[in-house]
Amino acid sequence: MRGVGTIGGRYSLATIGPACVSASHFLASFALLRALPPAHFGLFAFSLVVVGFSLGLSSALIGTPYTVAANQDRFSTDKVLTFFKANLLFSVLVGLVCSGIVFGMHPDATMTAPLFGLFGFLATLRWFSRAHAYAVHAPVRVAIMDITYAGVLIAGLAAVWLLHDLTMDTAIAAFISAAAASVAASGTGYLKSQFIKAFAGHLRGYASIWRNQSRWTLLGAVTTEATANAHAYMVTLIAGPAAFAPLAVGALFMRPISMCSNSLTQLERPAMARAIVVGAASEALHRSRHYRWALFLVWLATVAVAAVILVRFPGLIVTKNYDLVTVMEVTGLLALVEAVQLWISPEIALLQAAGRFRQLAEATVLSSIVTIMVGFSLLLAFGPVASLGGLLSGVIVLARCMTRLRRQFERSFPEHGGLRSSGRAARLPPAGIVPSQVANTREDQTALADPVLSN
């Protein structure tokens, strides 16, 4: 019972922040669903998909390699600053791209485009700050950042609702304020490293990171995005934002699942990497099983709430501008997709922690091809809702690949003494300490003296 309580406490801390963020996004989408016409709501929802893709790229290029590197035996100050400089430059690039995409789809959006670019910049900074906090085993800091983000967003939207018309521009302004407040809550050590010390970093140090990890995580992020959101791009670009709007409404109900899954991954991946580094692979496998059960409970709760709302109180969410049956069909299909995706999320986190980025990327290439081909065919033949069948097909293919890769990982360790025959994990360093903190070299001590690692 004490073990169950420990696991429950760890996951409660990891999910309370994302739950607040998910609730704030749900309320924001709910308000915009009623305030905006379908075409504008579809554009706003698609813009958030673009930001989500940018966050996936941030994790692939910077966050995931940083998480793994921070839990290795040697992690110097120079390496820290390399990651922070790369993150700052990438965040600026994301802001410019987001602004350009919105302007290209809506040329009259002279204010919307730059505002959305600023939100993309701040959202990317916020995402890496969360990854940093998890990498140094500070989940309380992540919870504070998430709660700050959610509180400021809700307050901003409420102020706009009461004092001004709720438009796409005013809504984005509220999102900008929330992201900025969350970044500020990341702590002075992080802020100094991100905005001051990062300029002393050298991008040439990123070359080895690119060769060993980032090029494979980037490929995996792109193909994962194709698997997860190909329908959003195809429907929006072919049928228009208005046709994408019902799919976005159905996706609202599944938002808590994705938010909790992302946060639990960021929580468990560093711990799995730490366990694998010290030779306690069985501990990493145990954590992946606990992770799956936690995700299963989140899925059950989310689907139950969605079913109650759609069957008993549909008017709370679905306005007269949308067909209820269509929204129910979208929600049901997305629930099936999330069930398969959550089943393999622990495998993906485990393999990332083990540094098997190339195998993961190769698996997602196959699933993305299936998703695009099936989804495009169904879109042309039967319409936007049917395109979700391509998404379901893609994640099923990915699930088969992940199961095979996990079995290969488990079989590889008995040969090297990684898995104990007794099934008991080796003694790990304390949960708040990364392996570099038990090293004794001068370089390691220099790295630990940097505020960004100790904050």
- Report mean pLDDT, rounded to a whole number: 80
Largest sheet: none
Computed structural class: mainly alpha
Indicate the radius of gyration in whole angstroms.
22 Å
Total helical segments: 15
- The tally of structural domains comes to 1
Tally of extended strands? Answer: 0
Tell me the quaternary state: single chain
Structure characteristics:
single chain, 455 residues, mainly alpha, 0% strand, globular, disordered C terminus
What would your notes on this structure say?
With 455 residues, the chain is an all-alpha fold. The protein has one domain (2-454). Helices cover 81% and strands 0% of the residues. It has 15 helices and no strands. The protein has helices at 2-35, 38-70, 77-105, 112-135, 139-163, 168-184, 188-195, 206-239, 241-277, 281-312, 324-353, 357-382, 388-416, 442-449, 451-454. The two termini are 32 Å apart. Mean pLDDT is 80; it is low at 415-455.
Brief description of this entry?
The chain is built from 15 helices and no strands.
Q: Which helices and strands appear, and what pairs or packs with what?
A:
Blueprint: H1 2-35, H2 38-70, H3 77-105, H4 112-135, H5 139-163, H6 168-184, H7 188-195, H8 206-239, H9 241-277, H10 281-312, H11 324-353, H12 357-382, H13 388-416, H14 442-449, H15 451-454
Helix pairs in contact: 1-5, 1-9, 2-3, 2-4, 2-8, 2-9, 3-4, 4-5, 4-6, 5-6, 8-9, 8-12, 8-13, 9-10, 9-11, 10-11, 11-13, 12-13
